Amino acid sequence: MLKTGRVALGRMEEVIFGKPAAEAVAETVQRLGAQRVFLMVSGTLNRETDEIEKVRRALGNYCVGTFDAMPPHTPRAAVIAAANQARAAKADLIVTVGGGSITDGAKAVQLCLALGIDTPEGMDACRANATRDSAPGAVLGIRQVSVPTTLSAGEFSAISGVTDERRKVKELFRHPMAIPQVVILDPAVTVHTPEWLWLSTGIRAVDHCVEGVCSREAHPYADAQGLRGLTLLTQGLKAVKADPSNLEARLDCQLGSWLSMGPLASGVPMGASHGIGYILGAAFDVPHGHTSCIMLPSVMRWNKPANADRQAMISAAMGRPGAEAADVLHEFIAGLGMPRSLSAVKIGPEHFDKIAQGAMNTPWVPRNPRPIPTPAQIREILELAA
User: Fold this and answer.
1) What is the pLDDT of residues 162-180, one digit of tens each?
2) CA-CA distance, 121 to 111, in Å (whole number)?
3) Which domain holds residue 381?
C-alpha cells in the first residue's frame, strides 16, 4: 500500500503525496478558493494519455485554459506565450502537470503576470543575480500548484531557469513567492514518463543531494535531508529500473527528490556539476538529467582533495562505505544505462573553452568546494568527463 500524507511547510503551503493527482488538484483548488484555473501541462500527457483530461474533468468549469507547448530548457518565447494566454483567460491559479521545464515556466509566468511583462525582451528587467531577486518587493498575486512527473525537483525551489534564445544562455529568475504553493506527488501519473527521463532526472536529484552534502557550506540540517534523500533515490531508481510498474519505488524516488532540495532550501549552494550543467543545457541542448549523469562523477573526482571526508558520507549513504564516491556514482549511473561522458552527447574538446568561460559566470562555480579561480580548472574537470 502506498504511503500517503500531507506536510505543511512555510512559504510553500504543503506537499501532498500518494493521492490521485486529479482528486488532489480539485480539493486543493477548492481549499484555495480559486475560480479560474489555468493548466500548464506536458504536451505528451495531454495528447497521448488521459491524465490531463482527468484533471480537467475534476476541475469542471473552474478550468479556463490549457497550455501544452513548453519546450525543454524553458525558452523565453514559450514563457511569454503561456503568460499571455493565462492573462487573456483571467486566470487566478496556475496548475502544472509535467517536468521541470513546465514547472520553471510557470514560476516565470507568475512573474510576468505580476509585472505586466508581455514580450521576451521585457524579461530583461527582472533577471536575478547572486544578491538580487527578480522584482524584489513585488507581490505575486497568481500562485502555482505543481504535479511533477520527473525528479529534477524544481517544484521545491523559488528559482526558475529560463533560456534566453538570443544568447543561448540560461538565466535565473527568483522570487520567494514563485515556489509552488502546493506540490502533489502522485506516482501513478509518472508511469507515462519515458524511462530515460525518469532515471536521468533522478540523477539530477542525486546531484542536488551530493553537491549539497559535499559543499563547504553544508550544515547538519541540510545533511540529514540530503543523505536520506540520496538513500531513497538510489534504492528507488534501481527498483524502478527493474520494475517500471513499482509505484512504491516511484513514490520513494519522489520523496527522495523532495528531500534533495533540503540543502538548497536551507542556504547550501550547489557546485561545479550544476554550474557546468547550466551551460551544457542552454548552449548544447543536453537534457538536464544527462548533464548530471555526465558531470557529477568527474566533479567529485576533481573535488576530492578538498572534501574527502564529505565524500565518504556519500558512499555510505549509497550502501558502499569506504569506496571512492566518484566510482560509486559512476557505477550507479552506468547501471541505470545513462550517458557517462561528454563524448556520449557529442561534445568534444573544441567546445571546452566556451563551456569553461560560460560556467565561470554561473552562480554555483564560484561556490564549488574546491576553489575554481579561472576557466583552466573547469577545463580540467571537462577533460575528466571527456
Assistant:
1) 999 999 888 999 999 999 9
2) 14
3) 194-385
